[in-house]
Give the backbone structure.
Amino acid sequence: MLTVTIAAVRLPAQATTVDKGVTVVQQASKKYQALSSFQAAFRQVRDDKFNGAEESRGMLYQEGKNHLALRWSDGMKEAIVLDGTYFWLYTPSTSPGQVLQYKQQSQPTYGGDLIGMFLDNPEGRFRITYVNSEVIDGHTTDAVTMEPITKDPNYIRATLWLDRQYGLPRRIEIQEKRDYKRTLYLSSLVQNPSIQPSIFKFDTKGLKIIPQ
């Protein structure tokens, strides 16, 4: 009797292809996490398909993960401030005479922190896809799209143009669900500056505080 023995053949496991964008964002995240502080000028464009585009300007300051300020320099000088204890949202153009006060969590408050929202633990929170390379204001950037893995109430996806040298974004484009797109252009980036503590304090004098 002829016995035929068939040996099991171990096939090589197929290599998992990692999108180039994942590597780009990981590298940017490491550089962002290593910063003690940074500041930048910003220009924001809100493009509402019903009402057209609206542009505003200001300064962005951040120190660690729990101190952040976006202060608009034009219009009614709106502000978003994280002071380490509270998250202040001041929008006099829509809510004159009052400011919203949120208890700040021990973890980064992504509602105000547009950078940390994308660069803190990005691989676990987004589907990341590389788009292309682009030079912005003389700086080479890599553009990536980032789609939330879980349902996010504020936006569908974002595209970031990440500076290869600094790791920080030069442009952030957010497709929001309420039929408009918000684009933030960052310039005059400064790494690890000494920022005056008063920048992260919100003056509530004359305003009604609305706890949330």
Residues 20-211 form a domain with the outer membrane lipoprotein receptor (LolB), chain A fold (CATH 2.50.20.10). The radius of gyration is 22 Å.
